[in-house]
Amino acid sequence: VQLQAYGGGLVQAGDSLRLSCAVSGGTFNVYGMGWFRQAPGKEREFVAAIHSSGMITDYADSVKGRFTISRDNSRTTVFLQMNSLKPEDTADYYCAARRSRFDSRRAIEYDYWGQGTLVTVSS
Question: Helix or strand or coil: residue 108?
């Protein structure tokens, strides 16, 4: 299973970005999917997750109301719409898939990971 994340970039505070993660080689519609991020000098942290059906989502408190996770099972892609970006959102963002329909906040419960895509938010 391969995950390819893209869509990062340099933006100003208050701007929006949409991250995408294309999944190949597996059975996407039975995977719970998640987004995590890691800022320089910090541990990887949970951002958002979505059930395989797309009907259940979960967010870290720090992004709730600003970020939206979604998925398109026909395109085997998961998205992270990020609005009202803040400098503290600056990090490498990683998508992950787990061999379970259920979403999870725990990185250890994910089986497959993509490479990071860097998001930099300037003040």
Answer: helix
